[in-house]
Design a protein that fits this description.
There is one protein chain. It contains nine helices and eight strands. It is an alpha/beta fold. The protein folds into two domains: 2-152, Rossmann fold; 158-249, ProC-like, C-terminal domain (N-(1-d-carboxylethyl)-l-norvaline Dehydrogenase, domain 2, Orthogonal Bundle). Strand 1, helix 1 and strand 2 (25-30) form a beta-alpha-beta unit. Bound molecules: NADP nicotinamide-adenine-dinucleotide phosphate.
Length: 251
């Protein structure tokens, strides 16, 4: 397919690379910051413009990978007739695109993507379209670069996004807090990596509810008390520690 990419951040960049690898042609990158559009366009070997510029109308597909809030104001400036327009957001209805084109849908990568990193394995995609025909086109397109494509309604995608935030964004935030604690206490955070991997790996064949270990589930009050004393100088981490301990004890 001939594709115009709107946006130039993490998802725009990772998906543009994926499309190109599978011989789809990126014909233009459009982004709010011209310099950001140029960076991705140079990598793709295509033209570029900013939001004030003219969008190339020769493409078959328009991928809009911008921040969720920017999606809501897109219909003030972008109108693409019958062209297929897709967004990539977990928590935004496909209908946010209904005034932009008569053919629209969603191509949501259910994975944490960073443009400086090679994506890990096959990226799962949740797709949706405003008509049966559009859905089929999106599904066939997605299958050219992923072996894990499934149809998901706005409501299902929203629920999965909530769960995704908990398992990925929240755990990563906990890693970041633990790393800061380790650095300040002069201990090596990397020693924890096998533990992080083991805990994540178990979720593929065990229910996490049955796999809980640690002082909270054992109700080891003396250990919990020692930990809280050590965390006296880390009020934010202590707060989270107490909240999660309470959640584990009462689950
Ligand atoms: N990253 C992920 O792991 C991930 C996974 C699945 C889905 N998503 C979804 O994919 C979409 C893009 O996420 P991302 O991670 O790629 O974000 P990102 O790296 O922060 O990039 C955001 C993009 O949106 C543009 N933008 C921001 N505010 C704008 C505005 N007010 N008007 C016009 N353009 C604006 C930026 O353009 P400039 O740089 O030119 O300013 C940039 O290209 C979001 O809907 C997100 O929920 C993200």
């Amino acid at each position: 397919m001939k594709v115009v990419i709107i946006g130039s951040g993490n998802v725009a960049t990772v998906l543009a690379r994926l499309f190109k690898k599978k011989n789809h042609e990126i014909v233009q990158v459009v982004s709010r910051e011209l310099a950001h559009a140029k960076l991705l366009a140079d990598e793709m070997g295509c033209s570029f413009t900013d939001n004030e510029g003219v969008i190339d109308t020769s493409a078959e597909l328009y991928l809009v990978a911008v921040s969720d809030s920017a999606l809501y104001s897109l219909n003030n400036s972008v109108h693409l007739g019958k062209k297929l327009v897709l967004h990539t957001a977990g928590s935004v209805s496909k209908d946010v695109l209904k005034d932009i084109s008569v053919n629209y849908g969603v191509l949501y990568p259910l994975q944490s993507l960073r443009k400086e990193l090679e994506p890990f394995g096959d990226i799962p995609f949740l797709i949706d379209g405003n008509t049966e025909e559009t859905q089929t086109i999106i599904k066939d397109f997605a299958k050219t670069f992923s072996g894990n494509v499934c149809k998901s309604s706005d409501e299902e995608r929203l629920k999965l996004h909530v769960a995704a935030v908990v398992v990925s964004n929240f755990t990563n935030h906990l890693y970041a807090m633990a790393e800061e604690f380790c650095n300040k206490e002069n201990i090596d955070f990397k020693l924890l990596v096998p533990l992080i991997k083991e805990t994540a790996q178990r979720t593929s064949n065990q229910s996490p509810a049955n796999m809980q270990t640690g002082p909270a589930v054992r109700n080891d009050v003396f250990t919990l008390d020692k930990h809280l004393q050590l965390l006296a100088n880390y009020p934010k981490l202590k707060y989270i520690y107490l909240k999660l301990t309470d959640s584990i004890v009462n689950s």
